[in-house]
Amino acid sequence: MAKEKKVVYEDQEVVVALAPRDEELPDLVLGIIKEKGFPMFFDEIVKEFSGIAGEDRLRKAVNHLLALGKLVEYPDGSLGIPSMKWEPRRSRRRRRKRTPRIMSEIASPKTYYIPPEH
């Protein structure tokens, strides 16, 4: 992925990492699309984040990026950065456009539990 994982525990067989928070997801989605270098379909983005973030959280992040103008939805339903070159990869057009919405969680300040140091 585009950003380093926050590793909590690492073993020879297992690596336990923290999942990204909702406010971190939009930047991670942008990073993945930039890394690939071409517009991606939503299901491809979901596969990239499988086991890390759920489909609903990703949909919120994508809609947030669309509302900010950092992502564009092309006629075939693929998502890319406005400056990207677009070539249709699927012949069928997307029936319904996505609804751009700002994520309210990002606007409000968060307080996370910080365990006391001993």
Task: Indicate the topology.
Blueprint: E1 6-10, E2 15-18, H1 25-36, H2 42-48, H3 55-68, E3 72-73, E4 79-80, H4 104-107
Antiparallel strand pairs: 1-2, 3-4
In words, what does this structure look like?
The chain is an alpha+beta fold. It contains 4 helices and 4 strands. The chain has a single domain, classed as Orthogonal Bundle (Arc Repressor Mutant, subunit A), CATH 1.10.10. The protein has a two-stranded antiparallel sheet. A two-stranded antiparallel ribbon has the order 3-4. Helix 1 crosses helix 3. The mean pLDDT is 83.
SSE topology string: EEHHHEEH
What characterizes the major β-sheet? 2 strands, antiparallel
Oligomer: single chain
Distance between the termini: 34 Å
- Structural class from helices and strands? alpha+beta
On the 0 to 100 scale, the average pLDDT is: 83
Q: What number of structural domains do the residues give?
A: 1
Q: Would you state the CATH class?
A: Mainly Alpha
Number of strands: 4
> Strand fraction band?
5-15%
Helix content: 25-40%
Molecular shape: globular
Q: Can you list the strand order of the major beta sheet?
A: 1-2
Task: Give the tags.
118 residues; Arc Repressor Mutant, subunit A; two-stranded antiparallel sheet; 4 strands; globular
